[in-house]
Amino acid sequence: MVATMAHSLALLQGYLDLSRAMRRVKIPRRLSEKTSLAVQGRIGCGLCLAAHTEAGRAAGLTDTDIDFARQGTATDTREAALVAFAVRTLTEPASLTDADVTALRAQGWSERVIAEIVGLVTLNLLTGAFNLVASLKPEDC
Known about the structure:
By secondary structure, the chain is mainly α. The chain has helices at residues 2-5, 9-22, 29-43, 46-58, 63-70, 77-91, 98-106, 111-133. The longest helix is centred in the last third of the chain and has 23 residues, at 111-133.
């Protein structure tokens, strides 16, 4: 993907910078992978789904966790709310309201985590969409 993305040095630099920045998030790795699975489930990038399934397992996710995440939810109600917010950020961002953010805060999610979820969705969209446009598939790697 990076080699193909390098046809635009500006895009490649932006991707690498965002990717590096998102490694410093405070979202727990298991939750980050659940979120990525939920978002990639909507985007439809098989390569990303395979990578995040493997990364999720390495982070300790069970098959149930992975199945729920791909459906845009989680077994934990607090995590389910954040994952659902991520999916809506991807699929219908104009529908999000102050009440949605307030509800996440009421469940104990910090401003930082809420902001980082938007960043994680953005990184997943860039990666997944680029892989789809470049016709990259799991068997290519």
